[in-house]
Amino acid sequence: MNATYTSPQLAAEEEFSQARKIKNAVKSLFGNPYNVIVMVTILLLVYLIVVPLIDMVSTTFEAAQRDLRRLGTGVEVGDFTLFYWNRLLFSDVSSALLYKPMLNSLCIALTVSVLSIVLGSATAWLLVRSDLPGKKFFSLAIIIPYMLPSWCKSMAWMTVFKTPRIGGNMGFLAALGVNVPEWLAYGPIPIVLVLTMHYYAYAYLLVSAALGSINSELEEMGEIAGAGKLQILRRITLPLVLPAILSAFILTFSKSMGTFGVPAFLGMKVNFMTISTSLYATIKQQQTTTGYAIAMILILISSANVYLNQRAIGSRRSYATIGGKGGRSTLISLGNWKPLVTLLLALFVVIAVIGPLLVLTLDTFMLKAGVYSVDNFSTYYWVGSGDSSIYEGEPGVLANPRFWSNTWNTLKLVVITSVFATFCGQLIGYINSRSRGRFSGKLVEQLVFVPYLIPSIAFGAIYLSMFSTASLGGLIPSLYGTFALLVLVSVVKHLPFSSRAGTSNMMQIGIELEEAGSIEGAGFFKRFARIVLPLSKAGFVSGFMLIFISIMKELDLIMLLVTPTMTTLPYMAFSYSNSNMPPYSNVVAVIMFLIVLFVYWLTNKFGNADISKSMGG
Amino acid sequence: MSTIVLKGIDKYYGSNHVLKNLNLTIEDGEFMTLLGPSGCGKTTTLRVVSGLEKPQNGTLYMDGELMVNAKELYFAPPSKRMLNLVFQSYALWPHMTVFHNVAFGLSIKKVPKDEIKTRVENALSRMQILEYKDRYPSELSGGQQQRVAIARAIVSEPKVLLLDEPLSNLDAKLRIDMRSELKRLHEELGTTVIYVTHDQIEALTMSTKVAVFFEGELAQVDTPLNVYQNPADLRVADFIGNPSINFVQAKARLEGDLLHIESDVGSFAFDSDYFTENEFPKSGVFDCVLGIRPEQIYLRSNPWQDAKEAVVYASQPAGSETLVQIQMGGTRLLVKQVGVRNYHTNQSVYATILENMLTVYNKETGKLIKIAVDLDIEAVELEAQKASGTL
Fold this sequence. Notes:
The complex is a heterodimer of chains A (617) and B (391).
Chain A: H1 8-13, H2 18-31, H3 33-59, H4 68-71, H5 83-90, H6 94-129, H7 135-147, H8 150-161, H9 172-175, H10 182-185, H11 188-212, H12 216-224, H13 229-258, H14 261-266, H15 275-284, H16 288-313, H17 338-364, H18 380-383, H19 401-434, H20 439-453, H21 456-467, H22 483-493, H23 495-507, H24 511-519, H25 524-552, H26 569-578, H27 582-606
Chain B: E1 4-13, E2 16-26, E3 31-35, H1 42-50, E4 57-62, E5 65-69, E6 74-75, E7 83-86, H2 98-108, H3 113-126, H4 142-154, E8 160-164, H5 172-189, E9 192-197, H6 200-206, E10 209-214, E11 217-222, H7 224-229, H8 234-239, E12 246-255, E13 258-263, E14 266-271, E15 285-292, E16 297-300, E17 308-317, E18 321-328, E19 331-338, E20 348-353, E21 359-362, E22 368-370, H9 377-388
Parallel strand pairs in B: 3-9, 3-10, 7-8, 8-9
Antiparallel strand pairs in B: 1-2, 1-4, 4-5, 5-6, 10-11, 12-13, 12-15, 13-14, 15-21, 16-20, 17-18, 17-20, 18-19, 21-22
Helix pairs in contact in B: 2-3, 2-4, 3-4
């Protein structure tokens, strides 16, 4: 069995050579494009995610030029100091800067999460498991809020409830002569309501996916065992979707914790601050370093939240896929409740979904705010050429060259970012799927997850800190005010989503298909071009669309990074609203919604993308 | 000459030691089957040869040329090894037609277009699937996909053809057809074939050599007949053969040139001509195990010569053969008889064992110490007739 095979060559080769070993190791490391790509990816991820984070942390401990006077004599720029943390945590202003806004944020996030999950889960159950009529209509209507940025809804809110006391025009109700109480116009209650109207869609998407994968035999078994409908719901269905509910909770909580647009519109004017508006305000007031410290606290809270939930879900997660075959699903009859439930849901759709859209659109056609009559109808805010008696001669949005340059910017940003993000996502997905269990794969997976933990506004702050000046001897260039920075920040922030889509796409391509290629002599690039890419095309397209929708709505992330010359549509709407020109900002919002709706329609038509995979914005 | 030499191959997946110091030589033109239960390392061995898997230790030579030297981290890429592989899952590219699947490797090698066309069509017609060349894999049946996979593997005229459980996804009838087709293909092409399977019938019927694996170690490398007749140890004996071999506990003692054996099924003495090189105690009584194939026991209803009495425990007629379990002293034996026989439970029968054909194992080491007498087919038949009393 152990045949002796003698050949002169063999005898010679068996002498071990350390030099040859090193040569071969180096050759296989660098000669294999896959290894090179993994190394470059890891380096880039470290540079774009870890370095900025460390950079920001270290900045908060260094004396800045503009604070030298306050720091006393002898302190130089870059010296170690606890001044900023002291100021944030233990000074007279800490309450206003940090504690109050943080308390506000926590209260808002908690209320929003609870309300959204109740609302989202209930609608999900009705649409997936019950015999509700008109499901097709409802299931589209229910996810429309997802397509409309949350801050657009706050604009709609203001259009309805605004009071003249704060300044600016009257809202719809005030115009009708209703005396709108202050607490309903601005502050925590409208913020909570608007955010709930937005985030319930996330809970709905997650829970309905989980409900859809439950085999109804599990519930039927409960029926056979003698359980009533409510008992089945409480003791079988609910525990099965609990993991989905918990992950909806993390998502909603961290998102409403870090959200900027809504509290900025509805809170800042009455001085109701949340941690994200406080962060924005500090940075706008040139107290950048303090702002970074706030951003870090925001990151800590959201990491803690993810960690706690991860632990809570932990082992339970395993049955998230139980009965994943789906299979048969028998609908549960609503019985006598059917008309009432349908009516309530329809009412909800009208108020929460169609209402805001309608109000926004209507308002753009009303020349004088608050006057709702036919002769007040005007297309001035859309196409008017600039009448000096209306809003200081600001021309209609479509007649404004700035709008077109902003639209061009936005589309450029969104398309380029989506292409890059999708491509990077697929590439990272490829690495993840091909190096399961290897250290490099795990490292990439972990690194890519980090941006998920960082709220958008804080992420913007990090990039502001890192790229505002050139550092490391030009290795990190100054990108502030450039288009490239907007692309970069958007691509990196969306990596968790794009790479998740990429991984599930690449997992579907069996490794043997590639091995068969390498047996035939195809190198890495040939395999990628001729086997992997053609097979991943479909996933590529749908991944692209989902990222597109998400970036289109993005305000929080680029809030701190845009400059007057480099502005996008969401920012344009924001600044119109900030300068008290609501009809204009409403026009921009409506246009954005139409673009998103169009892309969503395309997505549904040309790819079967799962919209719940892109909860980026 | 395309001899493949594996020396001292070790392969770990994490802390899992999958191949343990594997040494194996595969001669040119051989049909070598790697056989063993699942998880024994046979597919890993195939993948090490193909270059898809990098072992942590050992060397691999093909045609005298160094392909793997794990110590120096030298691994020739699969494409340099002049081989091709048929995957268990076929791994046909779903986005390419049959023609392009088969042509892929040639186009990578920049073979001229018209030559590609002739060679691909040759390979397809050899596998009798030329008519499907413009179809996509999803439009073919399992058996047709299998043929495409083989056509893709042979079109590049590899020196070595690797097949990883190629028949496991086919139904029973197709499997038998493909078996003979693969055997013909091997004879026509004359390439070296390495064939991985857990199906011993495939191994015994197709190969020129069989390598039996257990838990990452080679247990035996031999001709199919020898693996069946003289399994190297108790594990191989138990694994090969269906219905499986009878093991009988016995006492053995060496006296001069003769090994005397006492057991429930009888007393035997074997000449040292049939001993193997494996160790066993040269003095005193030691425990041994006899291996008796079910077809090497003959049953008669009436006493005859030195036939030993036994009682029928259960009888299972199956048309072409009848399996009978008999109780002989404290030992239960399985007997395979050709044709339909009728026994009822607890009936007395008289059994004759082809004692020359039985194998003896040292119980302590599990190794074969006495081989079956190497009779030619006619002699075996003569013995059998004698034993069954028809002569």
